[in-house]
Structure formats: structure tokens, C-alpha cells
Please model this.
Amino acid sequence: MRAATQQGQRIKRVTGELVRAVGGIEVAAADLVRGKSTVHRWTDRHDTEHFLNVDDCATLEAQAPRPLVTELLCRMAGGVFVTLPQGEDGGGDAIAGALLGVMDEVGQLASGVRISLSDGHCDPGEAATLRGLLGELMARAAAFDLLLAEREGA
Model:
């Protein structure tokens, strides 16, 4: 058996987090009509041959609080996963309110980045925290752009 790549290990770890988020191996297996051993192989870091497939990933992520595997794959591809804002049916005022909400979140995230960098030092733990904050900032900026596009009529 070949050694798992670092990316493969990350996918296995996050797949395990997803399976736990939906209730564990038994619950995931029952929901997907899969064997428990199959679901276990998807999360086993020593099994370099079996990974969660896209259809089953979508099914599990629909039940989880966050799309953990999709978020990881986006980061691995150099991007960031953005949850699209739900369509507004209240017209321009509702969109304006949503825009203000997004801008408030962006301001809070930017403040967190500024505070983290204020001492001029960035250790590995701070770097990980900052990457998380910046990912959230990018996601909020993309959501802001989508709301503006909706307002613009694009």
C-alpha cells in the first residue's frame, strides 16, 4: 500500500470531522445506505485508496452544520468556499440591510486581523488564526459582491 499524501491525510481528517458532525459512522452509513466499513475506510488515514465520493459528500454536508470537505477542497485549490446569500424578497431595502450586515462582519474581521498583527510578530499559531480570519474576510467580501450584483440586476 502506498503512503498517503499530505493532501490525502487532510481529506481523511476532514472527512472524519464531517462523519462525526452528522452523528458518526453508523448514522452516516445508514443515511447513505452504505456499509459501516465503507464509511470507516473513507476516514481511515492508513487507507490511501478509498475516499468519500462527491454524491455521498453532498448528502452528508447537507446534514452537517458546515460543508467541511468542500471548504477544505476549496482551500486546497487556492480558493475559499462562499455560502451564497439567500435571495431577498423585500426589494432594495432588504438588500441594503443585508449589505450593511455584511459590511459590519467585514469590519469586525478586519479589526481582528489588525489586532493580531499589532505587535509586529506572527508565530505559527497566529498565522493559522489569521488565515482563518482572512478566509472569512474573503468569503464576506464575495457575499458583499453577490449582494451588490443582485442590487445591480446582474
Summary: The first helix runs from residue 6 to 21. The chain has two domains: 6-76, 91-152.
